[in-house]
């Protein structure tokens, strides 16, 4: 799966939560971020592989799942999504028709939902909630444990907000 | 349970658990997280983290620390390693063990900051001036980065020579699950040669690389090369993947070996007899494993993130008994499994 958006939207964090959920489930996993100047102003992204087999190349060019948080990210990755794959996008920031008929697209107004629900900055986790709801990959408990692994102790107060964001996303 | 760690941070933690308490660094993308990790951890465990004023200063601090008998390391990325080459040569000339980590980026010059393997020649043949080699280890996963840190320290101590871990931006930046060894499992070996305090209880030791008498210098270099022959005979490491019945064997290390492994799997799904031979030590080069593979393979294909710097070593290892082809991307581009598969299929 590929998580992509502007630097600062939390795409690397969202990917890390997904990776940890895979780890807790005992899968082979890898998390590869973009780094360097493309992080500043352009698109930040990370490739997350969750597999039963040892992972070869951790760089994903044809994702099964694309989580797109801005238009440049969607445009960069949409053509590569595997046929039968899934795209979850922030429809409050991306206003574009998707012409491909061989993929499933979920439009979640995650930025607007985050603002309206006192979850500013957690649009990423609303999309993670939607992703895991559609994936059916693991239980809510596993996802919760993954969040606990990713949120440092000194930011413990953020855990509850992340939980609310994930739950909100799952209902979309 | 395993933990998720970035390659750069895992290298740092592994070094600490291998008994390293002296790290001298200087920031450069894409290895900076390693220095940053050491700056946080070292003060908490009574170790020394020092950000030097330059790469050259950092490597010479490693020389000093190693001369005093402790496990010391530095890390950088390609342009920074060029700056360290003087100190690496001095350490080789002084028979000092140390660990140098290169998280490679695209070159030459300042190049770029994306992953590359274009420092193969530098690491294996020209790490600095003079007649010498360094041990070169090439991990391909974050777990192997952890495992090879203690291996590199131990091997460097065993042979009294510098060791390099040749990684790249992809391995440094990515996170994978790792199992870290318990601290203290890897005790340093005795170092009776160290120039440390001894309260006049023995003759003082001298660490030096300056020998103005040609006869003496030649003698020392020749002795060192005898040791290199022993290293070549005992320290080669390689991994074979589906090589036994393979008609075409890909030779690849580090990041590109992961891509190659994916290509091997795709080729096998289509019935192609393709294998992967992955050098884990680049010096000593795993000639034994390659010679064995050359007994049955019809062709080799090296896959590299460079313009083909390993091709000649493969040809030499197998005395050109079968053709050696090359596919690579450079400048910071990671090849795709599909590209590699297309090259392999041309040879089947």
Question: Your description of this structure?
Answer:
The complex is a heterodimer of chains A (172) and B (348). Chain A is of the alpha/beta class. Chain A has helices at residues 11-24, 71-77, 110-116, 123-135, 140-150, 157-170; strands at 2-6, 28-33, 43-51, 65-68, 86-90, 104-108. In chain A, strands 2-3-1-4-5-6 form a six-stranded mixed β-sheet, with helices on both faces. Chain B has 348 residues and is α/β, with parallel strands linked by helices. Chain B has two domains: 3-182 and 224-232, Rossmann fold; 239-347, Rossmann fold, CATH 3.40.50. Chain B is 41% helix and 19% strand. Chain B has helices spanning 7-17, 32-41, 55-67, 78-93, 120-125, 142-159, 169-173, 214-234, 254-269, 287-294, 311-317, 337-347; strands at 3-6, 22-25, 48-51, 72-76, 98-104, 135-137, 162-168, 175-178, 238-241, 248-251, 274-279, 281-283, 299-304, 324-328. In chain B, strand 2 (22-25), helix 2 and strand 3 form a beta-alpha-beta unit. In chain B, helix 1 crosses helix 2 (32-41). Chain B starts with a strand and ends with a helix. Classes of the chains: A alpha/beta (172), B alpha/beta (348). Chains A and B meet through helix 1 and strand 2 of A and helix 7, strand 8 and helix 9 of B.
In short:
Chain A has six helices and six strands. By secondary structure, chain A is of the alpha/beta class. Chain A has a six-stranded mixed β-sheet, sandwiched between helices.
